[in-house]
């Protein structure tokens, strides 16, 4: 299987990679990692950009 932009691609299936969210934010880098995770997962969850505007 191939991993590409948060997806696992096989010959017969495409599925999202397992998601781990760290909500123990202590540093700016921790926050940046969380925002990066939210940035690539929001289209899969059907969250609109308007809903993310408050973040």
UniProtKB/TrEMBL annotation:
<dbReference type="GO" id="GO:0003964">
    <property type="term" value="F:RNA-directed DNA polymerase activity"/>
</dbReference>
<protein>
    <submittedName>
        <fullName>POK6 protein</fullName>
    </submittedName>
</protein>
<keyword id="KW-0695">RNA-directed DNA polymerase</keyword>
<keyword id="KW-0255">Endonuclease</keyword>
<keyword id="KW-0540">Nuclease</keyword>
<keyword id="KW-0378">Hydrolase</keyword>
<dbReference type="Pfam" id="PF06817">
    <property type="entry name" value="RVT_thumb"/>
</dbReference>
<dbReference type="GO" id="GO:0035613">
    <property type="term" value="F:RNA stem-loop binding"/>
</dbReference>
<dbReference type="InterPro" id="IPR043502">
    <property type="entry name" value="DNA/RNA_pol_sf"/>
</dbReference>
<keyword id="KW-0548">Nucleotidyltransferase</keyword>
<keyword id="KW-0808">Transferase</keyword>
<dbReference type="InterPro" id="IPR043128">
    <property type="entry name" value="Rev_trsase/Diguanyl_cyclase"/>
</dbReference>
<dbReference type="InterPro" id="IPR010661">
    <property type="entry name" value="RVT_thumb"/>
</dbReference>
<feature type="domain" description="Reverse transcriptase thumb">
    <location>
        <begin position="16"/>
        <end position="55"/>
    </location>
</feature>
<dbReference type="GO" id="GO:0016787">
    <property type="term" value="F:hydrolase activity"/>
</dbReference>
<dbReference type="GO" id="GO:0004519">
    <property type="term" value="F:endonuclease activity"/>
</dbReference>
């Amino acid at each position: 299987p191939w991993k590409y932009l948060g997806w696992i691609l096989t010959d017969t299936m495409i599925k999202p990679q397992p998601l781990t969210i760290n909500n123990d934010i202590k540093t700016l880098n921790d926050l940046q990692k969380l925002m990066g995770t939210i940035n690539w997962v929001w289209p899969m969850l059907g969250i609109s950009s308007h809903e993310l505007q408050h973040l």
